[in-house]
Design brief:
- Helices cover about 45% and strands about 15% of the residues.
- By secondary structure, it is of the alpha/beta class.
- It has a 5-stranded parallel sheet, sandwiched between helices.
- Helix 1 packs across helix 5 and helix 2 crosses helix 3 (about 75-80).
- The longest helix has 13 residues, at about 15-30.
- About 40% of the residues are buried.
């Protein structure tokens, strides 16, 4: 477990509800402080931009927090989350992607596609995302400052 991660905020739309609940269980069992931002009901549609806004608001004051967002494709909620300057979200389907995106781009939000990823792979991606460091060299910091 990465001791520098203060909280893991997790949110998803109705299509991501089942995967979100599974990840909450697994990450909590791994010792992470997980905050469920909804939704838990797969039968009541919610709009992914609203879910992304809820996550962005929750993460606004905590630079050591990380987020996980889930929708059917992972793309819509990622795009919505990246509207916020303090969010750097990337959709990852493999642990190596999550590791590289943390290392190179300091992503602080992992986007997952509930329709396209099995739960075990999603957990491996989440675990890798939370455990991977950022390579804080000057050129990477400079690039992130241009988008944040």
């Amino acid at each position: 477990m990465n001791k520098t991660v203060s909280k893991v905020y997790i949110a998803g739309d109705h299509r991501g509800a089942g995967l979100k609940l599974y990840l909450i269980e697994m990450l909590s069992a791994s010792g992470y402080n997980v905050v469920n931002l909804g939704t838990d009901d797969p039968n009541t549609p919610v709009d992914f931009p609203d879910i992304a806004a809820t996550l962005a608001d929750a993460m606004a004051g905590d630079k050591n927090a990380r987020g996980i967002i889930i929708c059917g494709t992972g793309a819509g909620i990622m795009i919505a989350a990246n509207r916020y300057r303090h969010i750097r979200a990337s959709r990852c389907d493999r642990p190596t992607q999550a590791r590289n995106d943390r290392f190179h781009d300091d992503i602080n939000v992992l986007a997952l596609a509930a329709d396209d990823i099995d739960i075990e792979m999603a957990f491996l991606c989440a675990q890798t995302f939370l455990e991977s460091p950022f390579d804080a060299i000057e050129r990477r910091i400079r690039r992130i400052e241009k988008i944040s």
